[in-house]
Amino acid sequence: MDARRFQDFARADFLKAAGLYVTPDRLFFVRLRKDLFRLTVVQEEARELGTDGNASSRRQALSEAFRSLLPYFDPARDPLYLCLSADQTICIELFLPPMAQEDLRQALNYEIERQLPLRSEDFYYDFLPAGRKGERLRVFLFAVPKKILDDLFDVLSAFGVRPRGVETTFTALSNYFLSCNDGEASSAAIIGGQKRGWEVVELCLGKDGRRSKPELLLSRWFPQVEWSRGAAQELFHGSFRRSPRWFGWGDFSDFLRLVKVDSLEIVDLLSLARKRFAGERVPSHPLSLPAVGAALQGLREATFRVNLLRDARQEKEGAVLSRLNLALSVLLFLGLIVWGVSYPLRDELRLRQLQAENRKLEPSVETLRREEGELERIRGEIALLSRFQDRRGELLRVLDELSRIVPNTAYLSGFRYRDSVVELQGSAESASNLVPVLERSPLLKDVGFNAPSNRGRDNRETFSLKAQLEQRPGEAAKP
Questions:
Q1: What is the pTM of this model?
Q2: Rg for the chain (alpha carbons), in Å?
Q3: Among 70, 143, 466, 479, which one has the highest count of C-beta atoms within 10 angstroms of its own C-beta?
Q4: Which of 4, 156, 3 is nearest to 80 (CA)?
Q5: pLDDT tens digits for range 73-116
Q6: Could you tell me how many helices (H) and strands (E) the chain has, helices first?
């Protein structure tokens, strides 16, 4: 299993989450559900807040808008994730020395007050490492003034809602795009926003175009009036040259009227939702996509896990596995144990089964062995008798020759004939006189003593002679 499939399998779960995209004049609410790998849009709502700049009027509008959203989700069971529009947040690209890698957050604490026009206790912030540029570390810093979030938290807390996380449109749209994209391009750019301004997000997608350690290359927001200036135009044209694919969201059609690039083809980011989300309901409003990207944090489908609430971020990072994945991990671990133990148990059961079958066959095997031994004995006797029958004439000829040439004064007490060798034992008055007598026989040759002769009390000598049988012509070729 490759890394991408393993990563997708690790995200399988049954979860629900809600995303809320907050702009100065509107709210966009989306509620999502995940069944293993399948994502479904359960609810999508939009609310107007008005354009009155009065703080009390805005708080009242927020309270009324959120009260109207309560029937569509359960704050106690559906975690809520917020996404703030880019005009309410701050995004800065920082370059730090390599030694800052050991404690990046501590290094940012020294650097952040030089970059932001606020004191560190006046804003919430988080960061996203983005690889290296040369020998320096590249980090994106996201921040929001505490006053903006605290006013929003006061409204939500009145309804018993405590958001789990807060992020900006840069990371929310990136997470939505990475969750939906299945292309093979090495990089992509996202352009869009609202009439107050537009933002550009550029992503490095890795080798396979999806979830292969993507990196954030660019995240910038410009008010609408600044697109006529050189910095915004230069930024856009630089991204246009680097990125082969462009995606748009929100009011990106108005943006196309400002840029002067004839060959720019922008794919509507909303169209990717039809491929990713199951069922008939998909996000329909282009400004709901940041809320979808924020809700992906609660479904464990986010690639860039940025949370401006530092405590909530630490709490979330501590819970690596959900209950379902924890249960699946326990089951997998138990299954591996059972699978590992089953092998010796199965071998032992097979061995015992074979031993039982062998015990059943032992009487038959023993009978066969006895019959085989008896058969071998009979075959030996048959072979002996066959050899004796083949040499019967030869043996009789030797006995006839001995009875003719051995003198009457000599007695034979033993006679052995084997493989053309004749052995004689007996007694005679003179054992040495028997050797020339036997040598003169045409049947015998190489006559000699096997053992020394001894003379007994009867004045006779015992002898043990050995002689070779003289072969006749034509007998040498016989076996």
A1: 0.66
A2: 52
A3: 143
A4: 156
A5: 888 888 999 999 988 898 988 888 888 888 888 888 888 878 87
A6: 13, 18
